């Protein structure tokens, strides 16, 4: 029986959560970006790099714990 949460080779819950975090980050940058000394593009870059680093770190933790 196929895994309904993983129909296309990736976990739908993870994709939806990541998309939601990205949209929240983008909304925050649009709403409050003028309060920072960085441009909107720089804030998007910083936010994207932070999400990638968090994802890689979490993946490494899963591998070390033997879950992947």
Features:
0% strand, 2 helices, mainly alpha, elongated, 68 residues
Explain the layout of strands and helices.
Elements: H1 12-32, H2 40-65
Helix pairs in contact: 1-2
Keywords: Membrane, Transmembrane, Transmembrane helix
Transmembrane segments: 12-32, 44-65
Computed Rg: 16 Å
Instruction: Give the strand content.
Output: under 5%
Total beta strands: 0
Distance between the termini: 21 Å
Indicate how many domains the architecture comprises: 1
pLDDT below 50 for ≥5 consecutive residues: which ranges? none
In round numbers, the mean pLDDT is 83
Number of helices, counting only DSSP H or I runs of 4 residues or more: 2
**By helix and strand content, what is the structural category?**
mainly alpha
Largest sheet features: none
**What proportion of the residues is helical, as a percent range?**
55-70%
Rough outline: elongated
Topology as H/E string?
Answer: HH
Could you describe the 3D structure shown?
It contains 2 helices and no strands. With 68 residues, it is mostly helical. The longest helix has 26 residues. Helix 1 packs antiparallel against helix 2. It has one domain. The two termini are 21 Å apart. The mean pLDDT is 83. Keywords: Membrane, Transmembrane, Transmembrane helix.
